[in-house]
């Protein structure tokens, strides 16, 4: 569904949860890049927000190709 939205040309940016399967994230990164769509990677932990873990998630998002984390 996310790839289809990018390919349809109806979005300028798309948000995706970084805890999804790495292969799915890589596929979306490739499609988003090919279509000129900005990829926003997010991470949600509603039980806690430890600062060190959050910083590590931002670093991981950048390594996985996020345009915005």
Q: What descriptors fit this protein?
A:
alpha+beta, 2 strands, single chain, two-stranded parallel sheet
Could you walk me through the main structural features you see in this protein, from its secondary elements to its overall organization?
It contains 3 helices and 2 strands, in the order H-E-H-E-H. Helix 1 runs parallel beside helix 2 (22-35). It has one domain. Strands 1-2 form a two-stranded parallel sheet. The chain is elongated. The model has no long low-confidence stretch (mean pLDDT 91). With 69 residues, the protein is of the alpha+beta class. The relative contact order is 0.22. 49% of the residues lie in helices and 14% in strands.
> Into how many domains do the coordinates divide?
1
- Average pLDDT works out at 91
Q: Report strand order across the widest sheet.
A: 1-2
The largest sheet, given as strand count, sense and whether it forms a barrel, is:
2 strands, parallel
Sum up the overall morphology in one term: elongated
Rg result: 12 Å
The secondary-structure class comes to: alpha+beta
Cα-to-Cα separation, first versus last residue: 21 Å
The total of beta strands comes to 2
Low-confidence stretches: none
> What's the oligomerization state?
single chain
Q: Approximately how much beta-strand content do the residues carry?
A: 5-15%
Strand/helix succession: HEHEH
Continuous helix count: 3
Percent helix:
40-55%
Short recap of the structure:
The protein is an alpha+beta fold and 69 residues long.
């Amino acid at each position: 569904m996310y790839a289809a939205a990018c390919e349809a040309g109806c979005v300028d940016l798309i948000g995706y949860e970084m805890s999804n399967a790495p292969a799915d994230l890589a596929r979306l990164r490739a499609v988003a890049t090919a279509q000129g769509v900005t990829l926003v990677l997010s991470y949600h932990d509603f039980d806690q927000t430890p600062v060190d873990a959050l910083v590590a998630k931002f670093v991981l998002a950048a390594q996985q190709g996020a345009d915005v984390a």
